[in-house]
Design goal:
By secondary structure, the protein is α/β, with parallel strands linked by helices. It has a 6-stranded mixed β-sheet, sandwiched between helices. Strand 1 and strand 2 form a beta hairpin.
Length: 181
Amino acid sequence: MFTKLDDILFPNKVDVINYNGKYIYPIFKNASSSLTEHAKANSYKIIFNEQITKLKTIDVFLREPKARYVSGVATYLFNNKITIDAITPGIFLDRHYLPQLHWLINLMRYIGADSKIHFHRLEMINQLTPLQLQPQKLKTIDTSIADHQDLEMYMRLDNLMFDELTGQSWTAKQIMTHLMT
């Protein structure tokens, strides 16, 4: 990576949790804490990087993009004890509000060409884990921050994934081709 920010947004260690033969890629603000804590409590194995290449299917849970962005920004503000003025829409400084597509691009660095990503809506998470961790009490922020014109392309791509890819399995090439059309 080129900068410290690259290492934050696109870390070189990509984790996938083995949930008894179902491989889950946790994305921040998409129940990743619940998935990770449930995996630890049950001693589920975590695989990473080159080990991921061998997987045939990886499951990913997607959240409605606007709600996720707003929640991610609130988490970033809380964690860093800063105000909303520190946020520049379209500039991503933290993985909590990084678009879900960016998370997938980081995963795609390690999956095999024939590997498939199976998309689920976040609402399906309770079929995988009974653990529903509640996030810390965050300050409420104006949801219109997600409507900024500098976020339009990112929201459109994340919405396409959420609306058109969930319930299906796709290779990395199929995902990118679908999003470009």
